[in-house]
Write a structure and sequence with these properties.
4 helices; mainly alpha; 0% strand; single chain
Length: 117
């Protein structure tokens, strides 16, 4: 039971993280500037690479430290990674939503119904 519950939590967290993470990363660049537009093109590749590298390190390094060093050292590694993430918060760009959020969804649903999907 605990095994399946943990799998459900992983899928829920992963399913909520990946679509939001990539779109939030795209919002960090200004489309009006040529240099930032070029950086935005490669940011998705780096984002995917960083996610895969973090999953690999999380599945190998943290588990190794947990098994052969101590739980406290593994917790320290996890806290260090979270603190590194939170140090970047002041540098993020936040864009507020404009207009009604449900209008584009409604347009997509109407277009899908008209096409017969």
């Amino acid at each position: 039971m605990l095994f399946f519950l943990s799998l459900y939590y992983i899928s829920l967290g992963d399913g909520g993280l990946k679509p939001c993470l990539e779109s939030f990363g795209a919002d960090q660049f200004d489309d009006d500037h040529l240099k930032e537009r070029k950086k935005e093109m490669s940011s998705f590749n780096w984002c995917t690479f960083a996610l895969c590298a973090a999953m690999m390190l999380g599945a190998t390094l943290v588990v190794y430290v947990q098994d052969f060093v101590s739980w406290a050292a593994a917790c320290l590694l996890l806290w260090l990674s979270l603190s590194y993430l939170y140090m970047g918060i002041p540098f993020y760009r936040y864009k507020t939503a404009e207009g009604n959020l449900f209008t584009p969804i409604l347009h997509i649903l109407i277009a899908a119904i008209r096409k017969g999907y």
